[in-house]
């Protein structure tokens, strides 16, 4: 009852919940599962870097892809001393979360839970440590393998992570939300590994959505916009790939987020790279995009299309697949359905060979993923006026 009254009081104050950090959960593949000693009856500290700040927060945990319930004995938040390099926290900032007034909660198989709101002041782009103390845990784990951020696992119910096992994955955490002014909002990004950050620097938070977030915060007209990175490495829009397809997950990852006012659609390279007919695949992706745009506009959400970046030199490339990329990019650039265009293709392609990336942006010379310099270029290429309208 108290939680209900608190929520009502918050609503009357004119604020609303906005996602400040989020990740797209999936069934964690076996090779990415938690290392020994595992989650059950142990403690896990995970680090996230938020976008916008706030004074009150709540946390969403997920068990969506797990076949058994997962017992959470307790959860604490604290300001982290680093963006993932260490498990160190500012002990004085530690607060305990509750769920319907209780410190523990069991997340049912296939379910999720949201904590009660709690006072926990955080600044823009501040690092937050989420410490979870587990009871019984599902053997099948819901999480996000491509964290590009180190988590710390220690046996038993503990807050001392000295000598903890390190793993560069997130488990069970899904969204951190802040109570924000009514004019604040979030941009949710549907993407694959190029959005998820493959090629960025572990614990440096330098994916292109991070670059965009920092720019938005520094710009007065856009300083209260959160950025939610809903990229999944290896993900496809239509079928196959890793994690639920973009077509299946967009209701959760775009419309299921709090305070979303803008959407960026930047996904299809895996569909095109594995297609039998590039143009036909592009047309089917466009059909999904149209559906998302229609639903977004009905909700008053603006949608921007981002052009697919080049991949000549990668084994995805063929003349047919390039025709598909050109078809999709041409539609993005010319359709009147979108509210704006982000031309990543133009920003990173080789002027002398437009089907290929500039060599200075290559990650591991795979001619598909970009390095940190490439992601900085992508993030800097976005016109912030798109978000000021």
Q: Could you outline the blueprint of secondary structure elements for this entry?
A:
Blueprint: H1 2-12, E1 16-22, E2 26-27, E3 42-49, E4 54-62, E5 70-79, E6 95-96, E7 105-107, E8 112-114, E9 118-122, E10 127-134, E11 142-144, E12 151-155, E13 165-167, E14 170-171, E15 173-180, E16 185-191, H2 193-196, H3 208-218, E17 225-231, H4 246-253, E18 260-266, H5 269-273, H6 278-298, E19 302-306, H7 319-334, E20 340-342, H8 344-348, E21 349-350, E22 353-357, H9 372-380
Parallel strand pairs: 16-17, 16-18, 18-19, 19-20
Antiparallel strand pairs: 1-15, 2-11, 3-10, 3-12, 4-8, 4-9, 4-15, 5-6, 5-7, 5-10, 11-14, 12-13, 21-22
Helix pairs in contact: 3-9, 6-7
Task: Please describe what this structure looks like.
This protein is of the alpha+beta class. 23% of the residues lie in helices and 29% in strands. It is built from 9 helices and 22 strands. It has helices at 2-12, 193-196, 208-218, 246-253, 269-273, 278-298, 319-334, 344-348, 372-380; strands spanning 16-22, 26-27, 42-49, 54-62, 70-79, 95-96, 105-107, 112-114, 118-122, 127-134, 142-144, 151-155, 165-167, 170-171, 173-180, 185-191, 225-231, 260-266, 302-306, 340-342, 349-350, 353-357. Strands 3, 5, 6, 7, 10, 12 and 13 form a 7-stranded antiparallel beta sheet that branches. Strands 1, 4, 8, 9 and 15 form a 5-stranded antiparallel beta sheet that branches. Strand 21 and strand 22 form a beta hairpin. Helix 3 packs across helix 9 (372-380) and helix 6 (278-298) runs parallel beside helix 7 (319-334). The longest helix is centred in the C-terminal third of the chain and has 21 residues, at 278-298. The radius of gyration is 20 Å and the shape is globular. Residues 1-12 have low confidence and may be disordered.
